[in-house]
Amino acid sequence: MSKTNKTERNVKAGKKKGAAEKDFTSSEYYFNRELSWVKFDERVLQEARDKSNPLMERMKFLSITSSNLDEFFMVRVASLKDMVNAGYNKPDIAGLTPKEQLAALSVATHELVDLQYSTYSRSILPQMKANGLTLISTHEDLSADQAEFVDRYFQDMVYPVLTPMAVDSSRPFPLVRNKTLNIGALISEKKESVRGKDKDKKVHKYDVDFAMVQVPDVLPRVVRIPSEDNTETAILLEEIIERNIDRLFLNYHVISAHPFRAMRNADLTIDEDEAEDLLKEIEKQIKMRQWGEVIRLEVQAGIDKRLLKILQEELSIGEEDIYHISGPLDLTFLMKVYAVEGYEHLKAEPYIPQPPKYMSMDRDIFEQIRAGDILLKHPYETFEPVVNFVRSAARDRDVLAIKQTLYRVSGNSPIIAALAQAAENGKQVTVLVELKARFDEENNIVWARTLEKAGCHVIYGLVGLKTHSKITLVVRREEDGIRRYVHLGTGNYNDKTAKLYTDMGILTCSEAIGEDATAVFNMLSGYSEPVSWNKLIVAPLWLKDRFLYLIGREAKHAGVGREAHIIAKMNSLCDPDIIAALYAASGAGVKIELIVRGICSLKAGIPGVSENITVHSIVGDFLEHSRIFWFLNEGNEEVYLGSADWMPRNLERRVEIVFPVERPEFKEDLKRFLEAELKDNVKASILMSDGSYERPDRRGRGAFNSQQYFCEEAVREAAKKKVNVESMRVFVPERSPAEEVDTETENQT
């Protein structure tokens, strides 16, 4: 069935009798996804601007907005530029061509950057100083003693690392690497210097010479220096280099010197059908990122116009893609400041993930799963049961096979170590490592090779599709035969991000899900495509139709006068067929409450179209990452968890898994979870019909922070079980010396 037919089917299914037909493909009903993303980063920036947040947390959020914007340019803006260069003029669902999107994004991102630096200079910097942490903005503000220290630091620590690069007839313009911080300089030759054999034969493209030096990322960017008032004082590395730049060009006068930073197209283009070895092809493409088209140039405000002209010409970049920065380039350095010890009073109280509500940490995990499914809620509850599940399987004599998908894992992953142990212990281990996980490609290549060396069977997924599903299958021999244990989740198998991302998971030994899990891995490792599934709903072939059916079913119930209600939580919503189905359901009278953290192309509150739809976005201390879908279904409530957002890429171009939650107490638990998030009036924002987001009205209601509530709830549940988190013991089967694996050295890739 075509997309158009599917949309028409769902539109008609949700119409009340006599209601006028509406064309839900019209661009007037959609927001552009890229501009919607900018609105999301603005909401992150709002946390940096919120003075009720601790100062260090505000700095962290400001750093996050900067790293978010970098990735957005390297991928999304780069993709639009590729379309324009290829002559692609088809409008998106909001009616904007790639060229029009770039023009609108240039305005929006320039405004966002201006707001970032206004927040930094007018709010963050003064508050840092008021709290005994001074960051000297320019080397010209150094005292005599500080200047002496800085100059000595340059000579001893920085100078030996630097490589100054000049440009002339024999030295071409140097490679400006992606995202690196550089200092560009205009220099002129001193009269007494001699260049080559004949100093009169000088050939210049410009009226002055250009030179540059890359600010080395092997040295700390934030350098502590002596303070005159017993407070913490620091200066940025580029200021130290700029102060001493004349030492790098001894035979020249340095006319001017300014930092700059270039962002390049980092969107990999891989022809998987032609690639003989996907791993080697991705390695080659990663290297090419350093040579991609420059799509954004950040320069210091007040830069010498001649220097800017040289950069603009050599990097082939238009005026609209140049950002004049009133402050230090690349605010991600604030995360380094956040890590400075001694300022814990300026940070949020650290939260320790609690033991899970539905299981014990000191009993055999397989025994507990046999007793009933286990629901896990991270980071409110510890991720340790997931790690323990794989570790226990690796060491258990009765486990025959382990199969797992890996999308993003941590640098020193205990799960990788456990899988390697399992292979060394003679178990059959199959791991799908998704090499195309953007910006984690290098990390995943390292892990793929590590697992292969340990004896695991490593596969890289299906051609043309990313494998984004989160599933682990353990096959165990027991007294009554073979039993399959399965973990399904909404988030990655990453023990580090599991402390920061909100995710859900289920541990089960359901026979039906076990059969489906086997079918998933057979599909991934071979060409075995099942005719049907017992419980799991899998993209790209089955999931979208299932969601359209579930939405349409609520619309039918509303159409005959029954109560109908949908609550759905996800990261992003921009699939036009899903949005059209939601509009039709809203028109039929379905109450639809959406919790969408990031991109949302749906317009809420349009009379006769989406007046029954509300959209909430929560940006808090934890990154909202779980996907939960709840349908009233005439009182026979259905709840699903999964790895997929309502985006075309998740529903049509990725291997995703959505799975039902069937235990009544779990359904009730998840419904209460969603209701609590909808009640949030501290960290939530509500989408308005014009695309703006506003904080909920608190009048007559007390402040309610859903993430704080979940933390407190998890602590209360742990207290009921009388578990001391600090001394929490995890049950793991005994292992033999042969199973020991060195996990002390953290991979830094």
Q: Which parts are unreliable, with pLDDT below 50 for 5 consecutive residues or more?
A: 1-20, 193-204, 271-276, 732-749
| Annotated CATH topology of the largest domain | Endonuclease, Chain A
Work out the strand percent.
Answer: 15-25%
Radius of gyration: 28 Å
Number of domains: 3
Helicity level, as a percent range? 25-40%
Major sheet: 10 strands, mixed
Q: Please tally the helical runs, counting DSSP H or I stretches of 4 or more residues.
A: 19
Report how far apart the termini are. 44 Å
Name the CATH superfamily classification of the largest domain. Answer: Endonuclease Chain A
Give the overall shape: globular
The CATH class assignment of the largest domain is Alpha Beta
CATH architecture of the largest domain: 2-Layer Sandwich
Mean pLDDT: 88
Could you say which structural class the secondary elements and strand pairing correspond to?
alpha/beta
Short description, anyone?
It is built from 19 helices and 27 strands. The chain is of the alpha/beta class.
Topology:
Blueprint: H1 3-13, H2 33-49, H3 55-85, H4 98-130, E1 133-136, H5 144-158, E2 165-167, E3 181-189, E4 209-214, E5 222-225, E6 232-236, H6 237-243, E7 252-264, H7 278-288, E8 294-300, H8 305-315, E9 322-325, H9 334-338, H10 365-371, E10 374-378, H11 384-395, E11 399-406, H12 414-424, E12 428-433, H13 441-454, E13 457-459, E14 466-467, E15 471-478, E16 481-489, E17 501-508, H14 511-525, E18 537-539, H15 543-559, E19 565-570, H16 576-588, E20 591-596, E21 613-618, E22 623-624, E23 627-631, E24 638-642, H17 648-652, E25 654-661, H18 664-679, E26 684-687, E27 693-694, H19 706-720
Parallel strand pairs: 1-6, 8-9, 11-12, 12-13, 14-25, 17-22, 19-20, 20-21
Antiparallel strand pairs: 2-4, 3-4, 3-7, 5-6, 7-8, 10-17, 11-15, 15-16, 16-17, 18-25, 19-23, 21-26, 23-24, 24-25, 26-27
Helix pairs in contact: 1-15, 1-16, 2-3, 2-4, 3-4, 11-12, 12-13, 15-16, 18-19
